[in-house]
Amino acid sequence: MESCAATRFPSLPLRRIRQWALAFVLQSLCSAMALAENIEIDLDAPKEVQTLLRQHVHLLRMAPGDIPAPGPDRAALLRRARHEIADLLATEGYFSPRIRIDRSNSGNWRLTVELGERAMVAAVDIRFQGELGNGGQEAQCENLRRDWAMPAGAPFRQADWEDAKQALLDTLQRERYAAAKFVSTKAGVDAAAARVRIDIAIDSGPAFRFGTLEVSGLRDLPPDFVARYNTLKEGGLYNRRDLLAFQESLQTAPQLSVAVVSIDPDPQKAAAAPIRVAVTEAIPQRLGFGLGISSNTGYRAETSYRHVNLFGRGWELASGLRLEQRRQSAYTDLFLPPEQARRHRDSAGVSFERSNLEGLRIYTGAAGLARNIRRDDSETQIAMRVQREEIHPEDAETSSYNTLTLNWSWVRRAVDNVLDPRSGHVLEVQLGGGIGLSAQARNFTRAYGRYLHYFSFGQRNVLILRGEAGATLARTRDGVPQDFLFRAGGTQSVRGYAYRSLGATEGSATVGGRYLAAASMEFVRWIKANAGMAVFIDSGDAADSRTSFAAHTGYGFGARWLSPAGPLAIDLAWPRDGKRPRLHFGVEVAF
To answer: What is the pTM of this model?
Structure first.
């Protein structure tokens, strides 16, 4: 058996062990006391840079108790603070700052920053290469130099320097020169003289022209579907604005859920750059249901069906049924894709409607054709339809009309947000007329206009002004369809009065008159981002003659809420004639 020698440790005197233990405890206590030292730091710097320093300098963001004890860590922290401050101020154009940290008061340090002279741009030299610099484009080069965002004499800031470079590059890439790139960019700093010399060389590359379409992602839609929306001319000079307009028109097509349009930026293909279009088709069929209630027409339930690729031809079929307490309607419309290189969209449809409002029952059936044209923030529609209308005024004779109508309408929405406008305006104009196709029907012409303007005061206050007027030119209202006459009252008209209760009188019923004029002023104060209060005054009337026109005025207050289902307004309005106040509201939930 092998034996192992026992290891012997030298014996230590008990007194020595006690001394070591006491020294360790004292050192630990001293370290703990040093770490627990609270140090407040006061910043003495010009106001314009205080926020920048407090947000980014590590020393200024530390808690008072987190400052390290005297030693290497504290020294490193102070060196870091000086470097951070110098680098941050350099981005603002201060290259020779004076930075002092006064630590004479152990519990309260003072960080003093003197900015020194701010550097100014002394000279700018921009040189162009590529097709733009090869001669013949001197005027454009001079315009680009003139529009340079950081000219000589301007203060130098890093953010402005980056923005100016990007703006120059974007200007070139936006029109013609899609492959433009910087060759060199230099900002030479003379810190002692507080001067910066800017030197830029940029290569425009060749001018790009549009080539052929290259479409990917189509599966069930017709192969020429994307081409029908294309407004870019093959051989035309490249323009990013036109490219984005093409993309936007595809994105609004109900047949597509995603559309991305770009060109091949290869300079070798600049003479005919392929237009790349990547799309994802939308779900072709949708069935929807909805419930709602409004002060105008009462409770409602509705269902809708939409097929956006009928017969595999890209046709859109939209149909629906809406049942309200005072009005019921059904419709079916067929929309065709736009013709190639044109911006209009044609449709055909039929509709049926029954209503019972203010003692007047109306039965309407119509079939027609329409053409819609969209350009930027405006939309134009030309519609022709044949309709039959039966009206049953309470305590008066029933009438029926067959009419061929033609109507032109134009709407421009120049607002900051279509669903929640706070500034801008909406203008609508309608011109139309009709020819009687039956004995009781009458020929007529009609004009209507509406204007809304939104004035924003600060972030929370909005003033809304609305005005509308219309006239139907005919010998009498008899024989003119109610759709082409006017009634007022209710939400979005003259609040304080029942929906469509202002108009001409026939028997015990209120029917449409030949003239309309109304105006409204509303002030909204948004208490929260999605909730506010409003006060308003409305005034207007619909009448069968200008002599019988008498303005009715309503005024009141209400609540506004930007709900997930859409904007909601609840108003309590008093009519000027002293009758009881009326509640106006509308809620709709789709599922």
So the answer is: 0.73
